[in-house]
Design goal:
This protein is an alpha/beta fold and 447 residues long. Helix 3 packs antiparallel against helix 4 and helix 11 packs across helix 13. It has one domain: Amidase signature (AS) enzymes (Alpha-Beta Complex). The protein is globular and about 60 Å long. It has 15 helices and 11 strands. Helix content is 34%, strand content 10%. The strands form 3 sheets. It has a 6-stranded mixed sheet, with helices on both faces. The chain has a 3-stranded parallel sheet with strand order 10-9-11, with helices on one face. The termini are far apart.
Length: 447
């Protein structure tokens, strides 16, 4: 059956699950969709800075190859022809992976694909380019001395969250249909909350990672999409086994898309409004409580509980800061002067930690629950786009510690641009999703 398609803006915002069906029946071509998405990138990149690299020529060549496969009835896989953005922490053959750092040489060589990138290529995805990240993905907002600041798609003056903020902004604005993210302390979930898209942190090992993250088992790879069905589709693709990751889980025969049909009836959900110790913004508390009510109405067994443990942030800091120190251990003191000042600070903290501190933090982390429904962030997206650290400071120190945003420099490839103009009428308000409450807040994000 033919499906009516209105215009290029509509194509750029269609979910992947619909696009692949349109491609299959011949109503729409991957070339048309890729052109529409590239048009959205051209329109919104100057204000938002979601990408650090866009390869239009390669994207169009991939889209044309996908169109030809569909014409022959030989689709490569479940996302053949779907435009995808890659967070700039994943190796991607032919493109530099600088991870937002001036310490990484763009010259390469860049010959390898990370497992998730390889899986997407095998299934025919159109890779658009690399999305912005804070340096080494270290914090919960997205800015770096290399690439500048990434704004929120609803209001460029606010943060998109981090560290997968570039991927989040790209997905919400139709600058990509699907996007790859990573999450250690909220780096998919924080942007999802601030930008209003679907994102989650899969079980460690479900999605293969290579090379191994310096942040160890805290860091997971996952999907960032506009719909739940697209998240299920993307997870099915990127969870493909890869022998390079020896920590990967065995293949999962579950059809993630099919599980959506059964809904949440009978699933037990622990709902914690504030973990027993967090001060949550009233608007966010109301929205999360409403979501719990919806789950209950759909048949889930929702029980309000407090997990019964104190704030684990100190244990997280030990594990996370140790990973940051490991990531830069091969660089000299002179080279480290190029680091994001906040990153340099946590590296210094980690270098005086003891092995016993790390082991104690690891034991603390092992105290877990099965399922908890709770706010991702206690506050809305902040207007201060460059907090120094992922860790809160005493009030007297916080103002002094906050530094001004990194300078935004024009680059030959798609990167930071000097302006922050308002979004056009084709901005995220066209998406038909609830606009999250985004008021100015000065709470440092935890990445």
């Amino acid at each position: 059956m033919s499906v009516e398609v209105d215009d290029s803006a509509d194509l750029a915002l269609r979910p992947a699950t619909e696009l692949v069906e349109l491609f299959r029946v011949g109503d729409v071509s991957p070339v048309e969709v890729t052109e529409a998405v590239l048009g959205r990138i051209e329109e919104h990149q100057p204000a938002i800075n979601a990408y650090c690299l866009v390869d239009e020529e390669r994207s169009m060549a991939d889209a044309q190859a996908s169109r030809d496969r569909y014409r022959r009835g030989e689709a490569a896989g479940r996302v053949d022809g779907v435009p995808v953005a890659v967070k700039d922490v994943f190796l991607t053959a032919g493109w530099p992976t600088r991870r937002g750092s001036r310490l990484v040489d763009a010259a390469g060589p860049w010959d390898d694909d990370a497992p998730v990138v390889a899986a997407l290529r095998r299934q025919g995805a159109v890779l658009l380019g690399k999305t912005t990240t804070p340096e080494l993905g270290w914090k919960g907002v997205t800015d770096s001395p290399l690439e500048g600041v990434t704004g929120n798609p609803w209001d460029p003056a606010l943060t998109a969250g981090g560290s997968s903020g570039g991927s989040a902004a790209a997905v919400v604005l139709g600058m990509a249909t699907l996007a790859l993210g990573t999450d250690g302390g909220g780096s998919i979930r924080i942007p999802a909350g601030f930008c209003g898209h679907v994102g989650f942190k899969p079980t460690y090992g479900r999605v293969p990672l290579w090379p191994a993250s310096p942040f160890g088992t805290l860091a997971h790879a996952g999907p960032m999409t506009r719909t739940v069905a697209d998240a299920a589709l993307m997870l099915a693709v990127i969870a493909a086994p890869d022998s390079r990751d020896w920590t990967a889980l065995p293949p999962d025969p579950t059809d993630y898309e099919a599980t959506l049909v059964g809904g949440v009836k009978g699933i037990r959900v622990a709902f914690s409004p504030d973990l027993g110790y967090v001060s949550v913004d009233p608007e966010i508390a109301t929205a999360v409580a409403q979501a719990a009510t919806v789950l209950e109405r759909l048949g889930a067994i929702v029980e309000q509980v407090d997990p019964g443990f104190a704030d684990p942030v100190e244990a997280f800091h030990v594990l996370w800061f140790a990973g940051a120190a490991d990531a830069v251990r091969s660089y000299s003191a002179e080279q480290r002067r190029l680091l994001d000042p906040g990153l340099a600070e946590v590296v210094e903290e980690a270098e005086v930690m003891r092995l016993s501190d790390y082991l104690a933090a690891a034991r603390h982390r092992a105290e877990q629950l099965d399922t908890v429904h709770l706010p991702v962030q206690p506050d809305p997206a902040a207007g201060d786009l460059h907090p120094v650290g992922v860790h809160p400071r005493p009030p007297a120190d916080r103002a002094a510690a906050r530094r001004s945003p990194a300078p935004r420099r024009p680059r030959a490839a798609c990167g930071p641009h000097p302006g922050r103009g308002a979004l056009t009428e084709n901005g995220p308000r066209d998406l038909g999703v609830h606009r999250p409450g985004l008021r100015d807040s000065r709470h440092p994000d935890r990445g």
